Each structure stands twice: as C-alpha cells, then as structure tokens.
Amino acid sequence: MKRLLIYIGIAFIGGCGRAEGPRLQTGDLLFQAGKTSEMSRAIHDATGRKASLDYTHVGIALRTAGADSVLEATGEGVRIVALRRFLDEAGRIDGRPAVVAMRLRDTAGVAASVARARQAVGLPYDWSFRPDNGRFYCSELVWEYYLTPEGRRLFEARPMNFRSADGSMPAFWTELFERLGEPIPEGVPGTNPNDMAREPILEEVGRFF
After folding, report:
1. Residue 18 Cα to chain centre, angstroms
2. Domains held by the chain: number
3. Residue 105 is part of a domain; what is its CATH number?
4. Is 138 inside a domain boundary?
5. Three-class SS of residue 15?
6. Which of 25, 66, 105, 193 would be 58's cystine partner, CB 3.0–4.6 Å?
7. What are the pLDDT digits (tens) for 94-146?
8. How far apart are CA 11 and CA 50, in angstroms?
C-alpha cells in the first residue's frame, strides 16, 4: 500500500511538472501563437508557413525570486507581465497555451541584452513598424537589444512583407496605415516572430502544450 501511494505521489508530481511547462532561464524567448484577432490574422497571412506553427508574438522570459514574468511589446507598449498572463493570452492547442520556449545556443551576453531591453519598459508600441523611431513591436524589441558582446545584432532584419500569400493586402494593414497617414512599409527591413523563431542561433527548450 505504501509503495502504491508513493507511486501515485510521484506520478502526480510528474504530471504537475509537465503542466508548468519548460524550465525557463532569463533571456529565453517565448514564441506565441496568438488568439484569433484581426491583427493576428494579418500577421499570420503575411508571415505564416504551411505545416508549421504560426507565431504572431514573442516575449522575453524573466526569472525572478517570485513568479516568472515576461518582457514584451504589445499594443499597450513595452511592459512586463506575469508569465501566467502571457500564457493566458496565447491561443490554445488541446486546451493548453500555444507557446514555445527557445534559447540562444550561445548565451554569452544574454544578461546584458535583457538588461538593455528592460530600459525600454514604458515606451510605446511601434504601430508604424519602422526601425529607429523609439518605439517597438514585439520582435523589434528583441532585434534591437539582443547583441553579441561586441555589439553586433544577433537577429537578422529582412525586407518586410505585409501581403497575404495571394498577393492581396489585408484590410487591417490598409486601414491602419491610412489612419496613421503613412505608407505601408512594404520592403522596409524588419522582423517577425516566425522568421525569428527559425534563426539557427536558437534551439527549442520546451513547449507549454
């Protein structure tokens, strides 16, 4: 009977460990397949790839003495939120958060990169999706502050595409940039969560689903 209770206890603890997701380190990148929204659909249409998970958001994991948190750039600006909130705002796969944790293969300089990124808290979201304007969208935040010890950017910026696979421009982008009074930055160097997640300098360390 004691052995049975011990076995059940071990199984329960193991199950709880899986429910908590991967063991994170500060500086890990959390790639999120977002819940359905007009913006998420527009990002998906422009950057999604068949036969793969389509990421619409990325945040930076922060380990603390208390609850883990995430540094991210959202429509509310650059902020730090509880990890649980970040997971709750993700889409779902079999009822669990559609979030994948990835880590740099070479972690030299990660602490300094995170420290730099923390200084952006409170800055506004970059609805213009243009570099060097003091504002940030999610993957731009990572691109800007994740540097080698020598100061070189770790992630590549590529010409941005806002069009769907069929070549049409989603209404979300057309209406957004009309309100901003700016041209759509098609072809301007930038980043997106899908391309960033596929950079060879990253390796997957776990999933929350």
Report:
1. 21
2. 1
3. 3.90.1720.10
4. yes
5. helix
6. 193
7. 999 999 999 999 999 999 999 999 999 999 999 999 999 999 999 999 999 99
8. 37
Q: Could you please report the per-residue DSSP string of 2-71?
A: HHHHHHHHHHHHHHHHHHH-S---TT-EEEE-BPS-HHHHHHHHHH--TTS----EEEEEE--SSS-EEE
201 close to 99: Cβ distance less than 8 angstroms: no
CA angle, residues 86, 88, 90, in degrees to nearest 5: 75
Beta bridge partners of 70: 61, 81
Question: Quick check: 10 pLDDT over 90?
Answer: no
Residue 14 maps to a domain: no
d(CA 162, CA 100): 24
pTM: 0.84
DSSP characters over 170-198: PHHHHHHHHHHT----TTSEE--HHHHHT
The answer to whether residue 92 sits within a structural domain is yes
Which residues pair with residue 78 across a beta bridge? Answer: 73
Overall residue count recorded for the chain in this entry: 209
Separation of alpha carbons 137 and 134, rounded Å:
11
Residue 13 included in any domain: no
Residue at 77: amino acid letter: G
Give me the domain span that covers residue 41. Answer: 24-207
